[in-house]
């Protein structure tokens, strides 16, 4: 069984990519702890926001590849861009990936405007154990 590896900074992301033998052209997933956080980070059309709201209300794991808001780039950890965004400057923003990790992501954001990154949703949906390389 594999692990979902979470990271909050460039060093943790680099280690995650090394351990997982993951190509940098496949960025980490940005785990979002609230719809308010999502709205601060990603460019959302009304339709996409509505889709996220529906999934949130029904407790359905969901993520979309979306561009970052220009004013949200300040939240990217220093040196992390190559690990969290692709060449189009987009990321996958995931919601409803499991209460314990949702609480961690929410608390990091609420207390320090820090972000939590993990593996693709396919791995998240399998209920794998969660491990982090960065202090929470």
Automatic annotation (TrEMBL):
SUPFAM superfamilies, alphabetized: YrdC/RibB
Name under which the protein is recorded: Uncharacterized protein
InterPro entries documented for this protein: DHBP_synth_RibB-like_a/b_dom (IPR017945)
